[in-house]
Every structure is written in structure tokens, then in C-alpha cells.
Write a structure and sequence with these properties.
The protein is of the alpha/beta class. Helix content is 46%, strand content 11%. An eleven-stranded mixed sheet has the order 1-3-2-8-10-9-14-15-13-11-12, with helices on both faces. A two-stranded antiparallel ribbon has the order 4-5. It starts with a helix and ends with a helix. The relative contact order is 0.10.
Length: 657
């Protein structure tokens, strides 16, 4: 009907235009010369205006005819069983698509081009999308078929020649086995290794201590998904047998540890913290698990990850902070942080895409390393973003972080991003030759201690002009995550996700990120890296480890940071007096990519003359004027797991006695 009206209007206007032209020409000889000139001028103006108007009407008519013909073509040929074709077949006006184009910030096309694009998408793009998904996206988690687009964080271009040179791990002497299991549980890995090597304790005895603590405190902290008891005793027995044969595999020989539950271990559930995958068993060995197993370490537990590696909410609850049991942990490596802090494991392996090592470590007051991107292989690990994901250790000391990194680093043949990165020995770094900057939010005790130890410390600010750092990381991370959980979203499993304000809305937004703008974000990332590299004029710098802008910048650049405990302060809204619950204070020591040894050396130097990292959280003893929260108080805090946890812990203790 609209086309008919427009056609009639165009013909009427054309006829009127021709009639007026002929009529005016016939009157010109009858007019005086002056009037003829005036009339000629007026008619020229009217003629020009009418020509333009008539031309516009004809152009509009032609465009509508093209639009209509394309719509008719869709409606005549579409497959009623295909939702995409059915939808396109109903479109008879580009305005129906224009609203969608606004969501892509691409509504600058005219109607004809929009329908042309819709036709091309139907005939060319969508079949390709579907074929690709069929090839690589049937399984969730990104465990197979990694992207060939590989991020390289290198600044120097220095390539490792052959196998990387291993660190010179320090040897201890004079370490005696404590009488109490509690004291053994809070020894660092080097000390425990000395006890095993000197046969003061067996790996099986040590494993029993940590299995007991995992069971005892898990009800309180909600930090363990699976206790791998059978596997642990088998590996501990093997470690003891090897030592009996005179074979010592190194500092991790017979040492218990935990893995974040996004890391696959055959025969045990790898739940990714999600109700959807809580019964999932992946019969594959993650590369990092292989490395630790070959070093003689003993896996005692799969530790909590936030659901699909987001924050600390998982299908079994939400992980709590050992230093303040009424407080939840922030960051998805909540289980590794809580268990290390509480003496449930001597060390654990966590992961970070955007703050999941730094935030939990800071909240729980443990030492943790986010290494240079690509240092540790990720085969067998659930993937969020192949250009951002990193694995790193949670420990009691920076020295522990150093030699655990030495064990797990190296080229993973199935992880295209991993490589034999050249790292110098952190135990051999002369810190007096370093210039270290400190930011405005640095913990000044660290600055002063290092200065007294001979480090040249200077005030510093890392400048760059890219002002969309947080947005770049969020956009890239969400799109990458959706590529690994495409089937999860398409099948509606996001509707039962544990935290509906987390992944579900983010990944829905990611669905409409244009590929062009994803690549523009990658280019902006490249610009950021260039600017950070040019302005990183010190050997390392000290600053807050949980500043969100810095977390995003560091992960985009691939920069290492070690989180170091530096003290404590009172909890907010504490009991009247004498509570031992505390808020931990930490700082971060940052180094350029592939200079993890610098950050580790500075952290080791600081910890050699301080004892903040040796403090124990008050899980069993909150203080004389602090009490286990009552049931009503816990209901106010939306969870009664602490009360139940202490009851269960007491009952377990009685049973074992």
C-alpha cells in the first residue's frame, strides 16, 4: 500500500511539473520585458526546487522497491524450520534490523545496505558460524582446540637457549620436627622438605596431618571441593619408598598440596565450582599436575574455585576468610588462598585472569605469585581467556613461591602460549644493584626495609595514556570466555548459574560484541603495552596489589606481581574487645615481564627480616571476648555454615581422640 501511494505521488508530481513548464512557456511572449525577466527568475527557482523534490521522491520510491523485492525474496525462500531464516523472512522493512544495528554501534548504513547485509549473513556468515561451532565448541571449558592467535608478553626478545636453567634452591640445616601437628602444619615448604629429607617425618605422616586439617576446617571455611585421600596416600607411600631407596626428587618430595578445582586430575571430579559441572570427571592430567607429580608432591585436595572461575561463590556455598570467618573471600582462587592461610595445605596452585590470585591472597594474608604470562602451561585447565589466564602458587613465603615456580614453569607442548622463559635465579640476585620505585599507595614499611637493606628506592609513577584499560580487559575476557562456554549459554545453563549478576549478564553482552571492536580492543592493548614498556624505568615497583586499574593493566601486559603480607589492622565493626580476628594488610611487588626473579628476590629480602607472613589466623581461638556467632547472627549474615562448621570440627576432634 505504501509503495502504491508513493508511486502515485511521483507520477502526479511529474505530470504537474510538465504541465506547469509548458503553460509557463506559452505565457512568456505575452508579458512585458520587465515582467518577463521577473517571471523567468521566479520560474527558474520554482523549477529547480520542483526538480529536486521530484528527484527525491523517485529515489525514495526506487529504494523502497529494492527493499520490498529483497524482503519478498526472503519471504518466498526461507525455511520455516530454521529460526534464522524464518526471522529474516518476516522482515519487510530495514527499520526492524536498524535497532539491532544500534546495539553494535553500526546504525550508519542505509536501508538497502542493511538488508543486503542481512541477506549475506543468512547465506554466508551463519553457515560458517555453525560449521565452526560444530568443529570446536561442542564441549565447554576450552580444554581442546586452542586459538592460534597467541599473546607474547616479551619486552626484550630474549629467547631461552635449550632447557631453562634451574634455580639454586637454598639448603637448610638444624630444623627440628615440632611436637605439635599444629606447628608442623604452619612450617613452610623448605622446612617440611628438610624434615622429610632427614627422615624426621615421613610423607605419609605429613599427609595424614594435612588431610585431617582439610576435613576439620572445611566446614568452617567452605574451601575444599574434594579430598583426594586415596590418591594422596598412594603418592605419599611412593615418595617414602623412593627415599628409602636413596632417591630424593627435590624440595617438593613428599610435600602435600592442593589444586584449584579448574585443574584436571584423572579419577576425581573437576567441577569448575559449578552446579552444572559438579559431577564432571575429566580423565586427563593437567600439565601443572604432571609437573608437581614428577617432583614428588602429594595431592591432598581439589580446592574451591568460584563458579566457572568467577569470585568465591560456588555450588557448595561461599568461601570464608580464615582471618575473619564472618567475611567472604574475593576472587575465584578462594580455596587455594583460604587453605594455605589456614594451614590446611603447605601450598596450593591457583589461577588468575583478572585478580583471582592477587585478591584472595591479599584477603587471606598469604604470599602468592602471579607469574609472567606464558610461564606455566595450562593444558587440562578450564580456560577463560587464552591470552590472559595464568597459573601461580599460594605459599607461606616468597622463597616457597620461587622454587615451586621453578618446578612448574617451562614449555607445555599443548599450550601454544607457554614457553621456556628465561628467568634468572632469584636466590642469586644482588638487590643492592636494583632501583625500585614506590607508588603513592605502597606500604611504606616495605619501602623502608628494602632501603635499609641497600636497595635504591625512588618515588615512581607508571604513566600511560590509554584511559580504557578496565574496559579493554572486561570486553576481551568476556568474549574469550563466551567462546569457551558457547554451548553452555545456548543450552540455557546460564539460568542455573550460582551468581546471576556475574557471568550470565556479562556473557550475554559479549554475544553482541562485533569482531571488529574485539580486534580494536586488542590493538588498544598493544598500545598500552608499548606505553607501559616505555615508562617502566625502574627494575621493579611497589604498590597496592588490589587496585583494580593496576590489576587490569598488569594482566593485559602480562606483568608478574608477588603479593606480600605486611601487617594487620582491626576488622570493621569488631566485638567490644580482645578479638583476634584481623584484616590483613599486603602490598604488591611488580616487575617487567620475564623478570619474576626480581620481584621474588625483593620479597624474599623483605621477609628475611620481618615476620608478618609467619602469623596464624585465629580459626580455633577468636579471643576471650569474641565468640562463635549465634544462629540468629549467622542468619543475618545469610549463612549458618560457621556455626555448623565449628560444631562439626569439635565432633571430628572428639571422634579422632
Amino acid at each position: 500500500m505504501l509503495l502504491l501511494k508513493m508511486t502515485r505521488t511521483c507520477f502526479v508530481m511529474t505530470a504537474l511539473f510538465l504541465f506547469l513548464s509548458v503553460y509557463s512557456a506559452s505565457l512568456w511572449p505575452l508579458l512585458p520585458s520587465k515582467q518577463l525577466a521577473q517571471q523567468h527568475h521566479l520560474l527558474n527557482a520554482s523549477y529547480t526546487k520542483m526538480v529536486h523534490t521530484n528527484k527525491r521522491f523517485w529515489e525514495m520510491l526506487c529504494q523502497k522497491v529494492r527493499v520490498y523485492s529483497q524482503a519478498v525474496m526472503y519471504s518466498g525462500k526461507h525455511n520455516h524450520n530454521d529460526p534464522v531464516e524464518c526471522c529474516l523472512g518476516k522482515i519487510k522493512d530495514a527499520s526492524q534490523l536498524r535497532q539491532a544495528f544500534k546495539l553494535l554501534d553500526a546504525d550508519f548504513f542505509n536501508d538497502s545496505k542493511i538488508l543486503e547485509m542481512a541477506k549475506g549473513a543468512k547465506e554466508l556468515n551463519i553457515p560458517i558460524y555453525r560449521a565452526n561451532r560444530k568443529l570446536v565448541a561442542r564441549e565447554n571449558g576450552g580444554l581442546h582446540d586452542p586459538s592460534v592467535l597467541v599473546f607474547n608478553p616479551e619486552w626484550t626478545g630474549e629467547e631461552a637457549q635449550g632447557a631453562p636453567k634451574r634455580f639454586s634452591c637454598p639448603t637448610l640445616s638444624g630444623i627440628q620436627k615440632p611436637e605439635r601437628d599444629e606447628d608442623i602444619a604452619f612450617m613452610n615448604v623448605l622446612e617440611l622438605g628438610h624434615l622429610i629429607q632427614t627422615k624426621q617425618i615421613t610423607s605419609q605422616e605429613l599427609t595424614r596431618i594435612f588431610l585431617h586439617r582439610l576435613k576439620k576446617y572445611n566446614h568452617v571455611l567452605e574451601s575444599v571441593v574434594s579430598v583426594t585421600e586415596e590418591l594422596a596416600y598412594d603418592q605419599a607411600k611412593r615418595a617414602d619408598e623412593l627415599l628409602g631407596q636413596g632417591i630424593y626428587l627435590g624440595p617438593l618430595h613428599g610435600i602435600p598440596y592442593g589444586l584449584k578445582d579448574i585443574i584436571a586430575v584423572p579419577g576425581y571430579k573437576t567441577t569448575w565450582g559449578s552446579e552444572t559441572f559438579k559431577d564432571q570427571v575429566l580423565n586427563m592430567e593437567a600439565w601443572v599436575y604432571k609437573r608437581l607429580k614428577s617432583a614428588g608432591a602429594v595431592l591432598v585436595g581439589k580446592l574451591v574455585t568460584g563458579s566457572l572461575a568467577y569470585d568465591s561463590i560456588w555450588f557448595g556455598g561461599r568461601t570464608r576468610n580464615p582471618w575473619n570467618i564472618e567475611e567472604f573471600i574475593t576472587g575465584s582462587s578462594a580455596g587455594p588462598a583460604a587453605c594455605t592461610s589456614a594451614g590446611m595445605v603447605p601450598f596450593a596452585i591457583g589461577s588468575e585472569t583478572a585478580g583471582s590470585i592477587t585478591y584472595p591472597a591479599a584477603r587471606c594474608g598469604v604470599t602468592a605469585l602471579r607469574p609472567t604470562f606464558g610461564t606455566v602451561g595450562r593444558t587440562g585447565v578450564m580456560s577463560i581467556s587464552e591470552s590472559l589466564d595464568k597459573l601461580g602458587p599460594f605459599c607461606r613465603t616468597a622463597a616457597d613461591c620461587a622454587f615451586i615456580l621453578d618446578v612448574i614453569r617451562g614449555k607445555d607442548p599443548d599450550d601454544l602460549s607457554s614457553k621456556d622463559i628465561t628467568l634468572h635465579d632469584p636466590f642469586s640476585v644482588d638487590i643492592t644493584k636494583l632501583t625500585v620505585g614506590y607508588l603513592e599507595d605502597a606500604e611504606m614499611e616495605v619501602v623502608q626495609v628494602l632501603q635499609l637493606m641497600g636497595v635504591n628506592v625512588v618515588q615512581f609513577k607508571l604513566n600511560y595514556t590509554v584511559d580504557s584499560v578496565q574496559g579493554i580487559l572486561n570486553l576481551m575476557m568476556d568474549v574469550d570466555m563466551l567462546a569457551h562456554f558457547d554451548e553452555w549459554q545456548r543450552s540455557g545453563q546460564d539460568d542455573v548459574y550460582e551468581a546471576q549478576d556475574k557471568w550470565p549478564p556479562e556473557l550475554r553482552r559479549a554475544r553482541i560484541v562485533p569482531a571488529v571492536d574485539y580486534l580494536q580492543a586488542q590493538r588498544a592493548r598493544g598500545k598500552l603495552i608499548q606505553e607501559v614498556r616505555g615508562n617502566f624505568t625502574v627494575d621493579a615497583f611497589i604498590g597496592n596489589a588490589t587496585d583494580w586499574e593496576r590489576v587490569c593493566m598488569g594482566n593485559l601486559v602480562g606483568m608478574p606481581v608477588i603479593v606480600v603480607p605486611t601487617g594487620f589492622k582491626s576488622i570493621s565493626d569488631p566485638p567490644p574487645a580482645n578479638s583476634r580476628r584481623r584484616t590483613t594488610i599486603t602490598t604488591g611487588i611488580y616487575a617487567p615481564p620475564q623478570h619474576d626473579h626480581i620481584a621474588l628476590a625483593l620479597a624474599m629480602a623483605y621477609q628475611s627480616v620481618t615476620d608478618h607472613h609467619k602469623q596464624r589466623p585465629p580459626i580455633d581461638d577468636l579471643g576471650p571476648d569474641d565468640s562463635i556467632p549465634s544462629h540468629s547472627e549467622l542468619c543475618t549474615h545469610q549463612d549458618n555454615s560457621v556455626f555448623k562448621g565449628f560444631q562439626d570440627a569439635v565432633e571430628l576432634e572428639i571422634l579422632e581422640l
